[in-house]
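From the shared-data thread, chain only:
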Amino acid sequence: MLRGRESTNIEDRRGMSGRNIALGGGGLGTIVILLIALLCGADPQTLLDQLQGGAPQTASQPQQQQQGNPQTDEQRRDVASVLGSTEDIWREQFRRIGRQYQDPKLVMFTNQVQSACGIAGSSTGPFYCPGDNKLYLDYSFFNELSREFKAPGDFAQAYVIAHEVGHHIQNLLGTMEQVQRAGNTNSDSVKLELQADCYAGVWAHYANQQGLVEAGDAEEAIRAASAVGDDSIQKRAQGYVVPESFTHGSSQQRVQWFQRGYQAGDMRQCNTFGR
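Structure, as tokens:
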């Protein structure tokens, strides 16, 4: 993973249990959580399955993780370095447009986590919650990215974090709120995701200028963007593609918008909404 200034905006919940949280059986609360989940970029069906998967449980005290594990400490440093780079770069980019960048927090967790967007499990994948301005990451996703999606590499992991930071930028600029008011259709969801890919590319552009990008790193990010396209995921999961159900964009679209941001280094070039 690229090495630079490490962010202090890391909230480490690894080793805590997020399962013993009171849950209801559905109704309006479930609908609200699913609507927020869609806006967060999470899979609403995954959250629905989790919400309907058992009887209500009562809250209990979370179990703290074991401290001092060299592997988990290294994971934290990896994540903190990428987040620190995004903070430095986006503070400057916002200054250029007369805005002040507000650093998000990144929550590292294992298995399951409570956020302002509801309960999410590892199967949801990394996500951003606009309700609390936090990124959520189970580091085991990177193992899946390498093993199942055939997209290994440190910079592939950095791209994932930068993409979620892209959603934070959308929240700060009011883009998410505009999409929510417009009805948050699948088409708008795709545009949000592609714009976050473009913002990740803008970050990579300046990280490259700072000497943080090595030969082959950009290709790792492009491979990761392609691997998590809706068409690629649907082919793997069900053997066929349903474009009407896309929520994140095709592999080609995700690569195209990441490359656009990477080449331009200009967030103004990331207008996927065309207005």
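The beta strands are 10-13, 105-109, 112-115, 118-121, 127-129, 134-137.
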